[in-house]
Amino acid sequence: xxxxxxxxxxxxxxxxDLPSREGDLPVEAIHDKxxxxxxxxxxxxxxxxxxxxxxxxxxxxxxIGRAVAILFAMxxxxxxxxxxxxxxxxxxxxxxxxxxxxxxxxxxxxDLTSPENCQKVADAAxxxxxxxxxxxxxxxxxxxxxxxxxxxNDQWTKTFNTNIHPYFxxxxxxxxxxxxGDTVINNASINAYIGRPDLLDYTSTKGAxxxxxxxxxxxxxxxxxxxxAVCPGPVWTPLIPATMDKxxxxxxxxxxxxxxxxxxxxxxxxxxxxPDSSMMSGQSLHPNGGTVVGS
Length: 295
Ligand SMILES: NC(=O)c1ccc[n+]([C@@H]2O[C@H](COP(=O)([O-])OP(=O)(O)OC[C@H]3O[C@@H](n4cnc5c(N)ncnc54)[C@H](O)[C@@H]3O)[C@@H](O)[C@H]2O)c1
What we know:
Radius of gyration: 18 Å
CATH topology: Rossmann fold
Largest sheet: 7 strands, parallel
Shape: globular
CATH architecture: 3-Layer(aba) Sandwich
Strand content: 5-15%
Bound molecules: nicotinamide-adenine-dinucleotide
Number of helices: 10
Distance between the termini: 35 Å
Structural class: alpha/beta
Number of strands: 9
Number of domains: 1
CATH class: Alpha Beta
Strand order of the largest sheet: 5-4-3-6-7-8-9
Helix content: 25-40%
């Protein structure tokens, strides 16, 4: 089988229960390396782009969130990560990888669907870090259903409660304390742009996230606080074997010939968090493996 960064890499079909963990993946995901021309990989090359910055990252225990915490650490930022209690082991691994790069990583297990828990996370992050320069809204839930009649009202509500409401609660708690140059980065999805039919509730929340990003960006731009979204395509993370059926896993790829690794999405978060994107706000970036979508 081709390796993770080689064209043709296709993760083997497997099933995990939610919340799923990195250690249960049948093939390891890559969080801190990027592809080489010959299909191998090399360590991410940092350049001090986030020196002294402090970030709150939801869902920072695994997948894209873990890769963001590690690349942020390599670029000089400390993190505070929030995640579900069942994912403590993944969170401790993220913490230890951040610490290997000489940065701090504070952890808090909590259910972010509650506005009170979001406030506690925001308060704890400000207390531990001193200030939050970068809010990365990233935690999410999805579960495939083929038809609208298969989506229970409870699933519809749970998806919205997990995917968009905490983005609002956390931004509301933290943006008032932000300064010129600070940023909010919201993880959306390609599905908001392609209208994925078997993830209707999830796709709807991701559309809401894109619109939330645009509105909040327009609201905060005069203060110099930038707000942007990232819209990944298929990425090999624990979410996939826990929420996608066999056929969807067999087709889990992109025009470039494979799904992304979390590290390849985290680079976009580094760009949006740092000075390289200083003139960018209200935008959506599309690390989706080559699917052309409207902006
Ligand atoms: N994997 C993909 O193919 C893909 C594609 C597009 C977008 N995304 C987005 O990337 C983001 C990260 O997902 P991932 O693929 O890295 O998967 P993941 O399973 O590694 O991360 C999801 C995280 O959400 C957290 N979470 C879920 N419900 C929560 C709750 N109620 N309270 C607190 N935390 C909660 C979990 O702790 C977990 O860490 C999500 O927003 C997802 O929609 C993923």
